[in-house]
Amino acid sequence: MTKNATQAAGIGRRGFLKGSAGLAFAFALVEAGDVMGQGAPARLNAYISIGTDGTIRIAAPAPEMGQATNTALPLIIAEELDADWSKVVVETAAVAAAYDHPIFRAQFVVGSLTTRGYWMAIRTAGAQARRVLIDAAAQRWNVPAGELSTEPSAVVHKASNRRLGYGEIASFAQMPAQLPEIRPDMLKKPANFRLIGRDVRRWDVPAKSTGKAVYAIDVQVPGMLYATLARSPVMGSTPRGHNGAELTRRPGIVAVVPLAQGVAVVGDKIETVLAARADLKVDWSPAPGSNFDSDRGRKMYLAHVRDPAGQKVVVGRRTGDANAALQSAARVVSGEFTTDYVYHAQMEPLTCVASVTADGVEVWTGTQWPSRARDDAAKAAGVPPEKVKVNMMPMGGGFGRRAQLEYVVEAVEVSKAVGKPVKLMSTREDDVANAHCRPMTAHKIDVGLDAGGKIAGWRHRIAADLVVTQVYGQPRLDAQNGVDHIVMAHADVPLYDVASHLAEHVYEAPGVRSAAWRGIGAGPNAFAIESMIDELAARAGEDPVAYRMKLLKDRRARTAVEVAADMAGWPKASRGETGFGIAMSRLGVPQLGESIAVTIVEVALDRARGNIAVRNMWCAADVGLPIQPRNIRHQVEGSLVWGLSAALSERITFKNGAVQQQNLSDYEVLRVSRLPKTEINIIRSGEIPLPVGELGLGTVAPAISNAVRALTGKRLAALPFTPDRVRATLA
Amino acid sequence: MASLNVNGQVRQIDASPDTPLLWVLREHLKLTGTKYGCGVAACGACTVHLDGEPIRACITPLSQVEGKRVTTIEGLPGGENNRLVQAWIAEQAPQCGYCQSGQIMQAAGLLAKTPKPSREQIVAHMDGNICRCGSYAQIVAAVERAAGGR
Ligand code: FES
Ligand code: FES
Question: Do A211 and B124 lie within an 8 Å CB cutoff?
Fold first, then answer.
């Protein structure tokens, strides 16, 4: 287990240096600009400590979900510090305001914004520490600081051929009363980067290749009991009765604890608890979603996008007057698309170890939102947040699911109820039954063309369940004027030459659980948009790449299309039952910069069976400044695999408001045998790292749909492309 | 009390004979490298070796392993110097990492029998092991590397 950085660095709660065995830096920094417009400037304290032996301890402030930010962030600090990376020890930070994400003002990992968000703040932190070391050396040698430079982990005075290692300096340097000011122009020039842009290995890989990495599910604390729980099959339903009395008579079962939306079984051994869970019977109250049937719902959502009269409709994105443009258009081309519910299937089922004592609360959990985990745990235990210690464990996958924290609250409640530490672990069956899905969506896109075939107006109506209310709560949605930014992400088309645009959200309220899901709205929205672009090209009788190049005004997007086309050897003619399709997607928020991916797929179609096999994927990914190119390729490939998995097989259905799938046996995620040969080309387009972790996901489904269109003239418009749907479309 | 040979050591276990080996390893013996993913032999996260053969610990009751040799990721010969582990590190395969013990144990079972597997053999052998993060290409590359193929 990684050590708690504040303890290891000998830094007290308030970030002051303690002891003398080296230097510890505590920074209070301000992120330049207030990009999200949320008021006060963002603050960050990054902790670097240097031992007299030259060991440099760097705290990784964000919880690790698998994207290697816990290598990238310390690496960026080490770059500006000019540290010898082999001397760096990465430590997981404590949960404390000092480590807040400068934009979110919380330790919170979402939207692939971790590296982007911490970027300037941690660079400044590293540079500031380097400056302190230089000043200390200058004083010792009695030379102007301006004559000194650094090499990895050493300050050098070229004129006198002297050098001092960082560890040596740490043995005599004093922390200045006032930390030196670092302006952005004092940071390293990208041309001088030694670590950024090189393939430095992830520090967590050896432990993750030997079974030594410790996840929340692996934690054991003395005196710990085991718990698992049945959550209400329908959101909002509560337990009215249960057979707990009978179960607690079994040897080893300590308690059966009813909770707001579940019933927990607690015992001294996991196997006893799981056996009792299998026999747990609960009488659930009805809830608003109790009659929801997703097959009927899909038809209803489609009816709503065709005619939203009587529905609550919120404008998500608008440029110009698309409705007027559609009315005066020479021709209108329309398309309809749907996507089904999908589940995260993060490999580690939701787990939290909690210990509630008279002194406070300690939890061990993998969460994307440790700050909120602390606050929610405090509320659940009835103690102030200062009494809660959250140990950020690496996550066995998150993908948006772990931005919701009911499992933390429930673990605290159970521990409080039984007066012992408890490991609350979901079974996979309960994890699926309690799926918080990317919502089902229906789309109608109307495109108005002028006499010359130019796009005069584009209207995109999206019927979907709300997600923001379930992740952040109703006040957040109200504060955003009803715009659900998760559902509506990338529903606009700014890179294309489109004169006017309107994206509307038709609210659906099926009463089922929803969540952010890798790529958020970009998945369904890019599927609809990029299929539509392809449809326009096809109807104009134009090559999809040529048509896009005509329509794209954005330089980076054009380059990405060119690079992808080059990789794939476009133009490719469909041959036999093999077709090619192209699609693009974006990731990020405009104020912070967006990354762009363009993917071309080669699809082999088995018409009789309705089977789609993707043979090749070529992806051009513009990520701004690549921090760790190889890891970026792995992340983009992971996103493409997700996109492919969601395109081909992933689907949750609801009957009577409850999830019908049971386990990974009937919720099918992509396996290695369906993996295409994949080539990824990373495009460096700037000096800021843009979002990566979800990039490319949205390209796969439309690229497949476009390839099948090229091959058959038919449009696959409903995700996922299950064999029965493919056969029905081709029939 | 059952007695169990795990990673070359005989251990006494206080669990009923129908207890899945997975929980015996993880919670009784604290060998937590072996992971729980599905409990129904659908994901491969719990893969360990029984007398050298990869099996799913989640559906294997304790009664079936008595008198046999169980090897977990912690008992893989060479530890970090094991050639598969080395290949995993070289290919930087893990992302969240949760599936990887199972992947490595599954791959070890293949190389023990088929030292130079073809790509098709690797894919067929590894198809029961899910990696939700999508690190499949690196996993296949790592098996090829460990087999001396790259
Ligand atoms: S946990 Fe055993 S195969 Fe999934
Ligand atoms: S690395 Fe995350 S599931 Fe395989």
Answer: no
